[in-house]
Amino acid sequence: MVWYVYVARCADDTLYCGIARDVAARIAEHDAGKGARYTRGRGPLSVVVTRRCKTQGDALRLEYAFKQLPRAAKESILAEMVAHPRRTPKILRARLLSRTGRDRR
Q1: Confidence (pLDDT) at 95
Q2: 40-94, pLDDT tens digit by residue?
Q3: Domain 3-100 classified CATH 3.40.1440?
């Protein structure tokens, strides 16, 4: 089953990252006040970028890696992902590899 990681910009200009199978439905939940506690009262949300993942585990790892970054790095990554939608930014790719241990041989 396909999962998506999405980054949404809240009305107060903060960023929220989450995963969902249906991003539009999930954003509607956030806007209705039934999504994550963080987004309650911060709507409406607008989706900045989505990324398709093969498994829920891949989506969770990508979400976690993104959430660990400072705000400036997140904004930089978002700009890069909007400009090049099919490429995963290097900083995010490096974090994913180091978290899974794939770069250690």
Answers
A1: 67
A2: 888 899 999 998 889 999 899 989 989 988 999 899 888 888 877 677 776 676 6
A3: yes
**Whole-model pTM?**
0.81
Alpha-carbon span 102 to 9, nearest angstrom: 31
* Separation of alpha carbons 94 and 97, rounded Å: 5
Q: What angle do CA 93, 97, 99 make, to 5 degrees?
A: 115
- List the beta bridge partners of residue 7: 17, 49
**Tally of residues, the chain:** 105
Which residues 6+ apart lie within 8 Å of 11 measured at CB?
42, 43, 44, 45
Q: Tell me which amino acid residue 89 is.
A: P
